[in-house]
Amino acid sequence: MSSRTFPRVVVLKGGLSAEREVSLVSGRECASALRRAGYEVIEIDAGRDVARVLAGEEPDAVFNALHGRWGEDGCIQGVLEWLGIPYTHSGVLASSLAMDKTRSKEIYRAAGLPVAESLIVPKAEVLAGHPMEPPYVVKPNNEGSSVGIYIVQENPNGPARLDDDAPDRLLVEKYVPGRELTVAVMGDRALSVTDIQAATGWYDYHAKYAEGGSRHVVPAEIPDDVFQACLDHAATAHEALGCRGMSRTDFRWDEARGLEGLVLLETNTQPGMTPTSLAPEQADHCGISFEELCHWLVEDASCGR
């Protein structure tokens, strides 16, 4: 393993988002791996005093293991830019763009990438009637980990039934049938394609994080042209959004339609980071251990780009 440009590393974990518990697990695993790699590691559960705490610790770099709002939407990245501390994963602009599903779709379309029809609709209209012909998906415009997603199937009895805490404006997206595929990009390299086979029928929060909630097949057993298209589309999305470090791009594939059935859903600039998470699994498939991956991410850390 190469020398350590940033020997003293803070791992930011936890935070204030709906994905706090997932982030605590990611942060713990990354901190352990970095200690094994020879770094001095300080773990911080990111609260509203995070800027003061970071300034007191004086780290050489920050490993950002936060997920969801404030952690991957450009907010903590802006704090780290202000403090002048190099940090892992994407910068302010790429993070905020990828978190905003509508804005990222505009960028995907401009880059020639296939996306599903969608629109932003007030919550009241979603509750009152069908904003588009079913089947469709209703979800927050700026959350991850399948938080707050509702699927309205064909021939429903009525519109979506939303939780009271659903946002006032929601993304409504045409439902794409088929298989769930994902590709991790590390630097400028698309690693592989994983076929996610969820026990519940779709890859919801439970399927992502509960034991036995899903099965990951890597490399995916799909036609060569679809496999290559997934790699190419993920690399293009990573570049078009301006990502750095590692990202993961998710797809749905309707195999009855062949290559035409492949649709890009979204790009995650802070993918899950445990040894069994999707992106580290792909790295391991390519011969990159979890410890080596965490080391690479720290050495790739930067500020101001």
Summarize the structure in short:
By secondary structure, this protein is α+β, with helices and mostly antiparallel strands. It has helices at 20-36, 50-57, 75-83, 92-99, 101-110, 123-128, 205-209, 224-241, 278-285, 290-299; strands at residues 8-13, 40-45, 61-64, 118-122, 136-139, 150-152, 169-174, 179-186, 189-190, 194-198, 214-217, 246-253, 262-268.
Please give a structural write-up.
With 305 residues, the protein is of the alpha+beta class. It has 3 domains: 8-89 and 290-299, Rossmann fold; 97-116 and 177-269, D-amino Acid Aminotransferase, Chain A, domain 1, CATH 3.30.470; 118-174. It is 32% helix and 22% strand. The chain has 10 helices and 13 strands. It has helices at 20-36, 50-57, 75-83, 92-99, 101-110, 123-128, 205-209, 224-241, 278-285, 290-299; strands at 8-13, 40-45, 61-64, 118-122, 136-139, 150-152, 169-174, 179-186, 189-190, 194-198, 214-217, 246-253, 262-268. The strands form 3 sheets. Strands 8, 9, 10, 11, 12 and 13 form a 6-stranded antiparallel beta sheet that branches. Strand 12 (246-253) and strand 13 (262-268) form a beta hairpin. Helix 1 (20-36) packs across helix 10 (290-299). The two termini are 25 Å apart. The relative contact order is 0.16. Mean pLDDT is 90; it is low at 202-210.
